[in-house]
Design goal:
This protein has about 220 residues and is an alpha+beta fold. The chain contains 6 helices and 5 strands; from the N terminus they run βββββαααααα.
């Protein structure tokens, strides 16, 4: 069986794959000036054994062939806590893991505007779930900071994220890869600090021995 190098989402990066099946086709124009073709390969990673499809297309007028994977390469791996997020935060906040998953899918499928709008919607719902529906982003931000869910610096970060989502929705703004990475980093940090750190701190307090007062010594 033939082997090839191909991208693997599970292992990360290019890995050796078995070529389980391959089908190819080609075409030529009637005048013979241009030509092209397609190749479809079913691949199995020799590490994790996951199976996916690679499509390679070529056109005589292009400099190099175009390669596409199904499912697409992961834009960025979710944090380690993501898979257990819905368990840790309870069913009341299930919308967080659901919306965050949709954002990851948008980034993986090269839909940066939808990803930015999804981040904005997610953060809005997070703020409403904590401070109530106050009717505007500004009111939500003010209450979110006043009630101690974020610091003044984090509030500035939230404002930048929300503005990027607003620009994507209303001003045809298309965030680049680095901007999307920043949006995801900040969003995940907000989720972790608001919903996950509290339980971790409570667990830490239970594990750390209490200080013995001098009068009790």
């Amino acid at each position: 069986m033939n082997t090839t190098k191909a991208h693997c989402n599970t292992c990360g990066g290019d890995r050796n794959h078995e070529v389980l099946h391959k089908a190819s086709s080609s075409w030529d124009s009637e005048d013979g000036y241009v030509s092209g073709g397609d190749s479809y390969e079913t691949l199995q990673c020799r590490g994790c054994e996951r199976i996916h499809l690679r499509h390679t297309s070529w056109f005589s007028e292009d400099d190099k062939p175009k390669t596409t994977y199904f499912p697409p390469p992961i834009f960025r791996k979710p944090p380690e806590w993501f898979e257990d997020l819905w368990i840790d935060i309870g069913t009341e906040y299930r919308f967080i893991s659901d919306l965050l998953q949709e954002v990851y899918i948008a980034t993986q499928n090269d839909l940066p505007r939808l990803a930015a709008m999804g981040v904005r919607a997610l953060l809005e719902q997070i703020m409403i779930s904590r401070v109530g529906d106050l009717g505007s982003f500004q009111a939500h931000l003010n209450a979110f900071e006043a009630q101690g869910f974020v610091t003044a610096m984090q509030r500035k970060q939230l404002e930048a994220i929300l503005e990027a989502g607003h620009a994507a929705a209303h001003r045809a703004y298309k965030p680049g890869s680095l901007t999307l990475l920043t949006l995801l980093d900040l969003t995940e940090h907000i989720i972790e600090s608001v919903f996950l750190h509290e339980d971790k701190i409570a667990h830490l307090r239970q594990k750390v021995p209490r200080r013995i007062a001098k009068d009790d010594a």
